[in-house]
Amino acid sequence: MYLAMGTRPDLAFPLQQLSQFLDNPGPAHWRATKRALRYLNGTRSRGFLLGGSDSVHNPFLSAYVDADYANCPDTGRCVSGYVLLFLGSPISWLAKKQNNVTLSTTEVEFVALSLCIQECLYIQQLASELKQSSDQPVVIYEDNQSTIHIAQNSEHHGRSKHIDVRYMFVRDLVEAKHFELRYCNTKQQLADFSP
Question: What is the pTM of this model?
Answer without folding.
Answer: 0.74
